[in-house]
Amino acid sequence: MPDFAASDSDVGVRLDTTLARRLGVSRAAAQRLIESRAVTVDGRAAAKGHVLRGGERVTYELPPARPATLTAEDVPYTLVYEDEALLVVDKPAGVVVHPAPGHEHGTLVQGLLGRGIAGGHESRPGVVHRLDRDTSGLLIVARTAEAHRRLVAQMARREITRSYVALLVGALPQDEGTIDAPLGRHVRDRKRISIHTTRPRRAVTHFRVRRRFPGYTLVDVRLETGRTHQIRVHFAALGYPVAGDTTYGGRGRRPAGLARQFLHAAHLELAHPLSGEPLSFDAPLPDDLAGFLAVLEGDVSAAPPDP
User: Fold this and answer.
1) Out of 16, 90, 132, 134, which one is annotated catalytic?
2) Which of 67, 107, 114, 289 is the residue whose CA sits 20 to 30 A from 77?
3) What pLDDT is recorded for position 104?
4) pTM score, two decimals?
């Protein structure tokens, strides 16, 4: 995250005034950024009227940039279902869902523009829900504003079933269970989601063990809520992080043969936004994850990295 040290000239000046000058934006825009808790002073949230003493470290996170014009690009994905109202696609790992700072091109949205997606924010038309860049699997994308509105409402009412397959590091003791632990931005590191937060939001994850391997547990996961990084953070908080997740587990190391986090959105159930017809979709494990499981099944060395 970008930051700066409050200089001598900032001593006695309000945080919003200093931030506006540093970023070249209006004071009102700086205040909105502070009020969204995207600004910290020495690692702590501060009020817009906070008076700087000098020497503090001010850290901020800018909102996603709005691209002036989205243009179609050649982006890989597998089309699972298509009709006049929506698309269901199987997103490969490594593809970002929509443009954001640092990922202005090569996103799934740009790959789908030619299919007439619509509804929602102008920088992410049709997007109903998202997957992390390195999570593969099923996504719903609307093709009309009305379909988008109804799908988002279904999501808010928790009427869309989203199930994942995850490989966890360690021997999870329960065969099934529920993790009910609120999540939010970490109190000090706003790039991370955590159970240690000053702005908790309810987060519920249901799981069932599918298979056990030496050093690993393969689980089926169903989301009741859809918080950012929810599955990854919940299992890491239990002490059983998702295999290959260098952000929330493994101290930046991955098991040999696994190039990304072992997390795949495998199943979707929803009502068609226009007809109400029940729809159900499945996506098999992609080759990289299936190949890693084959290594485990063959008793070939694929031990998790040392903690």
Assistant:
1) 132
2) 67
3) 87
4) 0.76
